[in-house]
Each structure stands twice: as structure tokens, then as C-alpha cells.
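User: I'm putting together a teaching handout on how multi-component assemblies are represented. Below are the sequence lines for each component of a complex, exactly as they appear in our records. Could you produce the 3D structure of the whole assembly as C-alpha cells, so the students can see both representations side by side? Please keep the chain order the same as the input.
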Amino acid sequence: MLDNKGHPNRLGVWGWLGGGTWGLERYLYTLHRLTGLGLLLYFLLHIVVTSARAFGPEAWAASMGRVSGGVFVLGEFLVFAAFAFHASNGVRLILVELGFAIGNPIEPIYPYRTSVHEQRPLALGILVLAGLVLAAGGYNFLAHLSH
Amino acid sequence: MRDQRLWTWHVLAGLVILVFLGLHMTIMHLDIIFGFFNPGDAKPIDWVSVVGRARMGFFTVSYVVLLGAALFHGLYGLRNILFELGPARGVKSALNVVLTVGGVGLFVFGAWAAWTAGVLARSL
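Assistant: Of course. Below is the structure of the complete assembly, with chains in the same order as your input.
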């Protein structure tokens, strides 16, 4: 993707970070990218940290000891939250890309209508789904903390 | 055409991640609710749980598949974001090399760790 063919992103980072008045779906796009970058950063570190299991129980305990404590628990919960949103929104993006939940094609008659309002129930649905997954994860994290 | 093919792989990798990372998150972070693959009262990151999963060939395979799919999905997504910032052609080429070499290197290292952990777990 994406060689710009005559329409370069002159706004730089703000070109994709800022949603202006484009609506909910545009902010879901921004959040999808931010959570994706966060998950990628965590994942790259996760590969290194969890590779300690190949060296036996002492190495594993030492590696887990280096990433334990309050800050890491909070970080882990944020990673779980990012996963809940990124996965749910990813399902929406795939469905939309395949042509589901965007309504039927209509004649382009002025004033033109977008399919955004057709997509809105799906967008709200995935937010509810992400919220349910997050609530389950939050319960699990709090239950561990209280043990 | 090449980018279209890579984008299709990006979407397919997302589906693979949805399945295997969903399973991983359920085991690791919804353990009190579901309790999958964690023996007794052990936490998911306790050595006994790690060894128990590593003994199962399914987990070794799923870790390697997830590793490959997530590295491709994540690094290709990062490449798209960086390319949208409009870097010069030389920077794009350098990014392609760095992300490809870095991704392959991490895949080899992570796959080695998953395989070695499986061998170690079965020898205990």
C-alpha cells in the first residue's frame, strides 16, 4: 500500500492522527493504528522476555521477576485493552472490506449520501464487544490483585 | 499488484492472529474465568503451567504460527504508517530492508525459543 499517486500526505503525523469532523469511524481508524503500534512494541519485547523459557526454570523466574510489579500489571492491562479494541475493530474492518454491513449500492444522485450511517451499527457493536471483553479482562486482573 | 497481494496477506494474518492470540489471551488473561490449560491453582506464568503447555505439540505449532503472523501483520502495518509520512525513495528502501531483516531475525529467534522450550519441557 501505499505509494501516493499525486496525493501526498502533506500533514505528516497529523494527517492520520487527526480526525477533524469526519465522525466516529475516523477516530476508530486512529485508535486502531495507535493500539496497533502499542501492541507491536509490546510484542517485540514479549518475544525477547518469554524466550527465557528455553533456558529453564531459573531463567524463566528471573525474566518474569524483571517484569513484575504495579507498573507492569497496569501495562499488561493496557495491552489487554488494546487487544480487545484492535481485535474487535479488526473484525469490523474485514467485514467492511468484504462488503458486509455497508448497505446496498445506490445511484449517485445529488445530494450524495455516504454509507457511513449504514456502517454505524456495526461500529457501535464492536465497541460494545470490545467493552465486554475488556470488562471480563478487568475482572480477571482485579481478581489476581486481590489474591 | 505486489502491494495488493501483501495487503491480502496482512488481512489473512489478522484472521490467524484473531484465532491464536484470542486463545493466548484467554489462557493468560482470562484464566480465573475460564481456567484453560493451567493446572490446579497455578497461574498462567508459573513454570508448571509454562512446561505443561510446552509439552503439547499444539502449543509449539500455535506459537510459531502466531509469531509469524503477528510479525508480518505488525511490521507491514508499521511500514504502511511510515510510508504514508512520505519518506524519500532511499528511506523507503532502507525501511524495507530493516523491517524484513528484523522480522525474519525475530521469527527465527522466537521459533527457536518455542521449539527449544518444547524439547526441554518433554525432557523434564
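A couple of points students might notice: Helices of chain B lie at 2-29, 31-34, 47-54, 57-84, 89-123. The interface with chain A takes residues 3, 6-7, 11, 14-15, 17-18, 21-22, 25, 29-33, 43, 45, 47, 50, 54, 67, 70-71, 74-75, 77-78, 80-81, 83-86, 106, 109-110, 112-114, 116-117, 120 of chain B (CB under 8 Å).
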